Amino acid sequence: MTDLSKLASDLLAKGPHKLEPTTRRVRVLFNKIYIADTTSARHVWEHPYYPQYYLPLDSIKPHTLTKGKPISHSTNNNDGAAFLGSLRVNDRSTERVLIFEKGPLADLVRLEFGAMDAWYEEDKEIYVHPKDPYKRVDILPSSRKVTVGIEDKTVAESAGGMFLIETGLPTRYYLPQTSVKWEYVTPSDTTSSCPYKGQANYYNVTIDGKEHKDAIWWYQYPTPESIAIAGMVCFYNEKVDIWIDGVKQERPISKFG
Q1: How far apart are CA 71 and CA 52, in angstroms?
Q2: Cα-Cα-Cα-Cα dihedral of 208, 173, 197, 229, to 10°?
Q3: How far apart are CA 107 and CA 40, in angstroms?
Q4: Which residues contact 203 (CB under 8 A, 6 or more apart)?
Q5: Were 115 and a residue from 21, 55, 96, 200 both cysteine, which residue would form a disulfide, CB within 3.0 to 4.6 Å?
Q6: Mean pLDDT, residues 220-241
Q7: C-alpha span between 241 and 256 (Å, rounded)
């Protein structure tokens, strides 16, 4: 969970990585009440990977927001520039709130995305975090032969995969389930969520008694924009060996491995 005091202190000292307005109508639901409704939200990149929504203070439903402890930071005379906050609607509250009063984020409020019941862009619910307006996801069918190996064992092979190319990430090779040697595979309890693809489930791979946890993931019911990978499996390029048409690929370096 994000340390809100540290996040605010870092933002006051260094500023966000990027800050941009958006014309999308953004609404936030909390305890069955829309506590924010605005067309003046900001995309704020707290780190390089994706943005969060920061909302104008005057877009928050009156009498729901309370200013709490100030964030202590003396650099550039930033005392009193940001505060921890709380949001209360009837019998429910959350303290996952930041309120900014000075600097580039002045008069903006950060509501923890996951602490709210739902977020909407126009009339469409969004999940996990706002999508990055500079990110693109392409899913391309390919007849190139993909071979996946772990510990010198071939665990999957197919010439009928889908290549998923996502800005800033390695190309992912989604293969039919029938390409997998299931004798090496067991279900995992792990799940994860992606705003572009939906909720993923995972499999472990065990070779000669050594378990490679969560080496495979798949989307049974992906988002409409990613429906082409429904039911297909994918291996972390960072953790397995992959050959494309017989040519071994270098393992990429990313935050996933």
Answers
A1: 20
A2: -100
A3: 12
A4: 185, 186, 187, 188, 214, 215, 216, 217, 218, 233
A5: 96
A6: 96
A7: 15
Tell me the C-alpha to C-alpha distance, in Å, between residue 206 and each of 153, 179, 251.
10, 17, 20
Distance CA 123, CA 126 (A): 10
Please provide the distance, in angstroms rounded to a whole number, between the alpha carbons at the two ends of the chain. Answer: 21
Question: In the numeric block, which tokens belong to residue 233?
Answer: 């499996």
Residue 92 pLDDT greater than 80, yes or no: yes
The structure tokens listed for 225 are 């924009």
pLDDT digits (tens, 9 = 90+) for 115-167: 999 999 999 999 999 999 999 999 999 999 999 999 999 999 999 999 999 99
Whole-model pTM: value is: 0.86
- 31-65 residue pLDDT tens: 999 999 999 999 999 999 999 999 999 999 999 99
Q: Are strands 185-194 and 172-175 parallel, antiparallel or unpaired?
A: unpaired
* Tokens found for residue 115: 């602490």
Could you give the C-alpha distances from 194 to 125, 146, 157, 198, 222, in angstroms and in order?
A: 13, 24, 26, 5, 9
